[in-house]
Amino acid sequence: MDRETKLWLVVLFFLFSATYCVVGVPQVPCLFIFGDSLSDSGNNNNLNTEAKANFMPYGVDFPAGPTGRFTNGRTSVDIITQLLGFDHFIPPYANTNGTDIALGVNYASGAAGIRNETGTHMGEDISFGLQVQHHRDIVSQLTTKLGTDKVQQHLNKCLYYVNIGNNDYLNNYFLPEHYPSNSNYTTEQYAIALAIEYSTYVKDLYELGARKFSLIGLNLIGCIPYEISTHGKNDSMCVQEESQAAQLFNEELKALVDRYNKELVGAKFIYVNSAFMKYSNFKLPDSLKCCKDKENGLCFPNEESCIGRHLHPFFDAFHPTEKVNLFTARCAYSSPIPTYTYPMDISQLVKL
Ligand SMILES: *[C@@H]1O[C@H](CO)[C@@H](O)[C@H](O)[C@H]1NC(C)=O
Ligand SMILES: *[C@@H]1O[C@H](CO)[C@@H](O)[C@H](O)[C@H]1NC(C)=O
Ligand SMILES: *[C@@H]1O[C@H](CO)[C@@H](O)[C@H](O)[C@H]1NC(C)=O
Ligand SMILES: *[C@@H]1O[C@H](CO)[C@@H](O)[C@H](O)[C@H]1NC(C)=O
């Protein structure tokens, strides 16, 4: 490990060292989760797709073992769920049976994006639009049980966590061999088109009763090991043009937070700046990740993963380890610096 890598890890350990403790009633009555593989907890298990993680070594550090989570342990939103005081994780839409939906549902699907075609070269996925349709179905099930007025009061108090869009770049725009978006749009046009589509889905959620929104920005996608190894011009450097393209979308998303905070009566939106984490100091992409990965960047089933999982930022060639998820979750929940969340963090949003 070189000096910069060590330094980065020291910073991480420092930030992780405080223990947290969760007791009592959750700070919101329910949590609804929309997103991709960073949040998926089993929705892809029965889909016809390569984008699955319901086998070892995924889940090696998760109490229930492999569940479909694309990491060794908890996802970032699992950890946020605990920080909010829930004593159970939110069930994936695919496994709900109608009795367990009042506390929330996780609709996230690996490889999915804002656009319907995103990720489909790997097989089926549940795009943002379809996730919103699933939510519509859940709201109507709840309405049958509780009646319209009670359901609206309940849904108004929930937290809606949206973390989607990375795949519209990784598994769409930057795969011109599979998708035409790269030749149809400049990066500026693409960011605007994505934000417009995103804003209509978010408005649908508002109309279904959502009021507290946490919108998560895109990562520094050019620093993901798979991108460095497939699109890097220099083996040791992040792919700047990819991170820059995603950053254009982040600017649109932040502007949407301002706009909807004014336009949508009674709603509160926050933006979380995930591009805050800098991996650019790492030198060797192979030392970033932990499991032995296939050509598509996901772990080989049933191969052993590395031993020091807490020392690696990535588990496979795309997805962060639980250690990094702990860091991003804590920063989103209780922001260490004002620029990480805008205009407030999740702990403040849920108190409103
Ligand atoms: C529904 O799921 C809950 C928890 O996931 C379980 O306890 C319950 O037995 C299930 N009910 C039915 C009817 O399958
Ligand atoms: C994407 O899929 C959703 C849900 O199936 C559908 O409502 C929407 O019209 C589709 N959007 C486009 C641009 O095809
Ligand atoms: C992209 O461009 C091609 C050819 O110009 C066109 O056929 C296609 O409909 C466009 N796709 C989208 C999503 O705009
Ligand atoms: C790659 O980047 C490193 C560090 O900036 C530099 O020393 C090296 O010369 C570069 N290699 C190539 C092939 O550009």
Can you characterise this structure?
- The protein has a five-stranded mixed beta sheet, with helices on one face.
- The radius of gyration is 19 Å and the shape is globular.
- It has one domain: Rossmann fold (3-Layer(aba) Sandwich), CATH 3.40.50.
- The model is unreliable at 1-22 (pLDDT under 50).
- The protein has twelve helices and five strands.
- Helix 2 (76-83) packs across helix 11, helix 3 runs parallel beside helix 7 and helix 7 (187-207) packs parallel to helix 9 (240-263).
- The protein has helices at residues 3-16, 76-83, 128-146, 148-157, 166-173, 181-184, 187-207, 225-231, 240-263, 285-288, 322-333, 346-349, and strands at 31-35, 159-163, 212-216, 268-272, 341-342.
- The termini are far apart.
- It is an alpha/beta fold.
- One 2-acetamido-2-deoxy-beta-D-glucopyranose (NAG) binds at residues 180, 184.
Output the keywords.
38% helix; 12 helices; secreted; SGNH_hydro_sf; binds 2-acetamido-2-deoxy-beta-D-glucopyranose; 352 residues; disordered N terminus; alpha/beta; Rossmann fold; GDSL; five-stranded mixed β-sheet; lipid degradation
Report the CATH architecture.
Answer: 3-Layer(aba) Sandwich
What is the molecular shape? Answer: globular
With helices defined by DSSP (H or I, 4 residues minimum), what is the helix count?
12
Number of domains: 1
Helical content band? 25-40%
User: β content, as a range?
Assistant: 5-15%
Q: Taking Cα atoms only, what radius of gyration do you get, to the nearest Å?
A: 19 Å
Sheet with the most strands: spatial strand order: 1-2-3-4-5
Largest sheet: 5 strands, mixed
Order of helices and strands: HEHHHEHHHEHHEHHEH
Specify the CATH class.
Alpha Beta
Number of strands: 5
Task: Give the N-to-C terminal Cα separation.
Answer: 45 Å
Bound molecules: 2-acetamido-2-deoxy-beta-D-glucopyranose
